[in-house]
Amino acid sequence: MTKGTRSLLKALRYDPKGLCRYIQHQTLPPTDPIKIAIGVNLEGDLIEADLSDPNTCHFLVGGTTGSGKSEFLRSLLLSLLKRHSPEHLQIALVDPKRVTFPEFEDIPWLLQPIVKDTEGAIALMNSLMDEMDQRYRRFEKTRCADLTRYNQQASSPLSRIVCIFDEYADFMAEKESRSAIEQSIKRLGAMARAAGIHLIIATQRPDAQVVTPLIRSNLPGRVALKTASEADSSIVLGGKQGDAVNLLGKGDLLYLGGGQLLRLQSLFAPEITL
Ligand SMILES: Nc1ncnc2c1ncn2[C@@H]1O[C@H](COP(=O)(O)OP(=O)(O)OP(=O)(O)O)[C@@H](O)[C@H]1O
Ligand SMILES: [Mg+2]
């Protein structure tokens, strides 16, 4: 990395207005694609991911402690809230550590109160699966293939639902809850995109016991912040991609979406303004 690159990364990282500079407050029409902010590249451009794209419809986010996962999730969430109204977008938050989303407790976008324990997480996943099944039945009746088509012709459009989990490994400790969570991630990961339901799942422990092949194969979008080992990096990014171990931490990340690996700096929003 050159000196110039390093100072750009540093400037972005310590600019508290980082997020506001890239994402303006606006209300997009419901037919616009729902995009999430991933980070800024070395040219200073914001890179986003479209949730309706099969390569970036659900995400696995991994990185060691202090690497910037929670900040990444917060800025990703803000990038959604700043551009989509609560009528067209609903958010479900899971926060076992209770420190990631405190400012978001009462926002009108929330599908239900923030989930903080295992039973709550399992109940949430079950309700998302029920919602998905209901939506598929409606699509079938109206002969629509997916949410976008359905909303183009429906008098009352359905909102997209984005479910953001910080530290899902906390729910993988016990055998029973582990299998319930794993099965629901598998089912939603495989089927929920067309129904407009999206999962973004982060973990500090991207090892093979937590990020099982079942989970990996159903979460196509990947973001690796600095990992503790090359092995953890390759679990998040797939194949032999061990490079996340060399990242700088604090929001320095590798993003894999649609087969391309990009080095980005996550946006930073320590003070939340909605
Ligand atoms: N994009 C960023 N720009 C600048 N600083 C950042 C950025 N992301 C994270 N940081 C800094 O790194 C610290 C740790 O980030 P964060 O809490 O998101 O880590 P984490 O990966 O969630 O850690 P843990 O696994 O322990 O919860 C933050 O308090 C902040 O100071
Ligand atoms: Mg965290």
In words, what does this structure look like?
It is a single chain. By secondary structure, the protein is of the alpha/beta class. It has a single domain (about 5-265), classed as Rossmann fold. Helices cover about 35% and strands about 20% of the residues. It is built from eight helices and nine strands. The chain has helices at about 5-15, 20, 70-80, 120-140, 145-155, 175-190, 215-220, 230-235; strands at about 35-40, 45-50, 60, 90-95, 160-165, 195-205, 220-225, 250-255, 260-265. The strands form two sheets. Strands 4-5-6-3-7-8-9 form a seven-stranded mixed sheet, with helices on both faces. It has a two-stranded antiparallel ribbon with strand order 1-2. A hairpin with a 2-residue loop joins strand 8 (about 250-255) and strand 9 (about 260-265). The chain is globular. The two termini are about 35 Å apart. The mean pLDDT is about 90. Bound molecules: adenosine-5'-triphosphate and magnesium ion. Adenosine-5'-triphosphate binds near residues 65, 67, 69 and 251.
Number of domains: 1
Each distinct ligand: adenosine-5'-triphosphate, magnesium ion
Low-confidence stretches: none
For the biggest β-sheet, the strand order reads 4-5-6-3-7-8-9
Order of helices and strands: HHEEEHEHHEHEHEHEE
Feature tags:
binds magnesium ion; 8 helices; 34% helix; 18% strand; 274 residues; seven-stranded mixed β-sheet; alpha/beta; Rossmann fold
Topology:
Elements: H1 3-14, H2 18-22, E1 35-40, E2 46-50, E3 59-62, H3 69-81, E4 89-94, H4 118-142, H5 147-153, E5 160-165, H6 175-191, E6 197-203, H7 213-218, E7 221-224, H8 230-237, E8 252-257, E9 260-265
Parallel strand pairs: 3-6, 3-7, 4-5, 5-6
Antiparallel strand pairs: 1-2, 7-8, 8-9
Bound molecules: adenosine-5'-triphosphate (ATP) and magnesium ion.
